[in-house]
Amino acid sequence: MAQTKAELEDKRKATLNEITYVDNMLKSTAKKKEESMSALKIIGNKLNLRESVIRGMRDEINLMTGRIDLNTIAIFMMESDLVDLKNDYARAVINSYKSQKENPELVYILSAKDFNQGYKRLKYLQQVTKFRRKESEIIIELKEQVQITKDRLQNDLSRISVLKSKEEQQKSLLQSEQEKKQGMVKSLTKKEKQLKKDLEEKKRIADKIEKEIAKIIEDERKKVVKSNNTPEQKLIGENFAENKGRLPWPVERGIITSQFGIQKHPILKYVTENNIGIEITSLGKTVVRSVFKGEVAKVFAVQGANMIVIIRHGKYLSVYQNIVDLKVKPGDKVDTKQVIGNVYCEKENANKSILKFMIYEEKDSLNPEAWISKN
């Protein structure tokens, strides 16, 4: 339980730190005094984090409530045992006093038939004395344990009171942020025509990129088939697969503002987006890093999406979109976390740096969130 409690506390602190990071993003957006899809996605991310904090606090409260129940039962059992031990000890002391009065220990030993019996009686009396001493030590130890458990119980009750107060604060902040999001949605709904236009442009760029990527992936697949893959490439591919869920993020710090797969549009009703990757939003200058060692397979540009870098890791490919200031070229060998360039910083969008990140297994797109570390 102590370990689980510590894990919950660490998770809560990490999430609150993430909320602070998101707050800084929203403050920079607020300076622009304009609503945007980017700001809406960021506040949506913040709401998810806030709900995660509240769930974590509820888990902590439930955990400690369970521990309080167990400690209450333990105190009851120990106090019951303590009463029985005290009564047994009192009876033993009274009986000993009576027996010594009527038949002192020395007389009991000397009245033995022979030396052997006298020695046994002596050992018996010594064992009785030792047992009584041990019994008194157990009583003292049990009393101390009861007090320790009571103190722990009181600490848990105080901790629950503090957590409940913090939980209410978080709920109040959540409600305020939800109202802010609703206001943002209402404001953006008035810009429906522009949003549809932006979405069409986004789809146009995505289609072009997908076609380019599909062509490049097919070329790479043919190369692999023709060469039958080198032992080194096979090993890199196997190691890449083994590190699923543990790959480093392609940027040092950021939040996921667009998820993989078919997603509902946050404003436009009955409109969905089919994302072949994820979008990671950071603030200010942001470097892009390779998530695993491999070889740069392709570098190309698409209008409206800046540069795109594809790195091959055996039969896997990682794709990085919206790159400027490139540090690599096709054929370069790269290591894990090696810088490959910078994310384009949108000064007109409150200095947001939005990286689109994709992972492929041959020609199948995979969910990058399942591959990168959760920390």
How would you describe what is shown here?
- Strand 2 (261-264) and strand 3 (272-275) form a beta hairpin.
- This protein starts with a helix and ends in a 9-residue tail after the last strand.
- It has helices at residues 2-32, 37-102, 105-110, 115-189, 192-227, 231-242; strands at residues 255-258, 261-264, 272-275, 278-283, 287-289, 294-302, 306-313, 316-324, 333-334, 339-343, 345-346, 352-361, 364-366.
- The protein has two domains: 2-189, no CATH class; 192-370, Glucose Permease (Domain IIA).
- The strands form two sheets. Strands 1, 4, 5, 6, 7, 8, 9, 10, 11, 12 and 13 form an eleven-stranded antiparallel sheet that branches. Strands 2-3 form a two-stranded antiparallel ribbon.
- The chain is an alpha+beta fold and 375 residues long.
- Helix 1 (2-32) packs antiparallel against helix 2 (37-102) and helix 2 runs antiparallel to helix 4 (115-189).
- The relative contact order is 0.11.
Average pLDDT across residues?
77
- Spans of at least 5 consecutive residues with low confidence: none
Portion in helices? 55-70%
* Terminal Cα span: 22 Å
**Overall 3D geometry?**
elongated
β-strand percent reads 15-25%
Structural class: alpha+beta
If helices are DSSP runs of H or I spanning 4 or more residues, what is the number of helices? 6
Q: Rg to the nearest angstrom?
A: 35 Å
Q: What profile does the largest beta sheet have?
A: 11 strands, antiparallel
Number of strands: 13
How many structural domains can be distinguished in the coordinates? 2
SSE order = HHHHHHEEEEEEEEEEEEE
